[in-house]
Amino acid sequence: MSYAKIEIAPSILASNFAKLGDEIRAVEQGGADVIHVDVMDGHFVPNISIGIPVVASLRKATRLPLDVHLMIDRPEKYIEGFVRAGASRLLVHQEATVHLDRALTMIRELGAEAGAAINPATPVAMLSDVLGKVDTVLVMSVNPGFGGQKFIPGAIEKIRQLNEWRARYNGSFRIEVDGGVDTGNVGELAQAGANTFVAGTSIFHTPDPAAAARQIRKLATDALS
Ligand code: DX5
Ligand code: ZN
Questions:
Q1: Which domain holds residue 182?
Q2: What is d(CA 113, CA 117) in angstroms, rounded to the nearest whole number?
Q3: Atom of ligand 1 at shortest distance to CA of 179?
Q4: What total of structural domains would you count in the chain?
Q5: Does the C-beta of 117 come closer than 6 Å to ligand 1?
């Protein structure tokens, strides 16, 4: 197995953008493994967030890997720009491109890790032909576009299915879950087979983000022991 069993990925979408450097230092102290960066274009999702210049600034502000979640149409047009800006991992949505295989190959050829993401309405089977070409599969547990939404429980069964396929075919991709992850569901998600836990609201909208990150990791780790 080449991936970490548990990774905590705070989503800066829920942070105070006016104090981004401080927010990142806080979750670094809380043992965050990667920083999750949500890029939205106002087309693929009904919201606009941040883009390539912010990723370039983040690259200078932390040594942690940047997990860049592209919620944009035709992601292939921007892959090179994001990798050059410092994205360590680039996640593209299956629904956003008719050339998913090409997009994933491009990411790896540029030297970053490639991830494929699926919306709540997209079955895991849509990724069956690319599972050998991804470092991460991202299961959305909310409809992408906003932080602070309610967890959609159907994600758990998808994670179980991916975990089963991974075991059966000796796969080496990590399973990431994004949306509504908190202390109440992280244990069950870990048991289902998730490895990377994206958490925005449940980390940054607390009085002590470092402690919140630590607590989420503890609950995920405890659930596996
Ligand atoms: C939603 C984003 C998520 C979001 C998660 O479109 O992809 O990464 O920041 O936020 P919470 O943890 O608040 O659901
Ligand atoms: Zn995200």
A1: 7-224
A2: 13
A3: 14
A4: 1
A5: no
Which ligand 1 atom sits nearest the alpha carbon of residue 145? 6
Q: Is 48 left (phi over 0), alpha (psi -120 to 50) or beta?
A: beta
In a domain, 53, yes or no: yes
Domain membership flag for residue 1: no
Measured in residues, the chain has a length of: 225
Please list the rounded mean pLDDT of every run of 10 residues in the chain (225 residues): 91 98 98 98 98 98 98 98 98 98 98 98 98 98 98 98 97 98 98 98 98 98 97
Catalytic residue among 41, 129, 178, 182: 178
Q: Say whether 178 is catalytic.
A: yes
Q: Is the pTM of this model over 0.85?
A: yes
- Predicted confidence at residue 1, as pLDDT, reads 58
Closest-CA residue to 71 (of 149, 156, 138): 138
- Looking at residue 2, what is its pLDDT? 78
Between the CA of 205 and the centroid of ligand 2 the distance, in Å, is: 16
C-alpha 169 – ligand 1 centre gap (Å): 30
Residue 142 near ligand 1, beta carbon < 6 Å: yes
Closest by CA to 47, choosing from 122, 155, 147, is 147
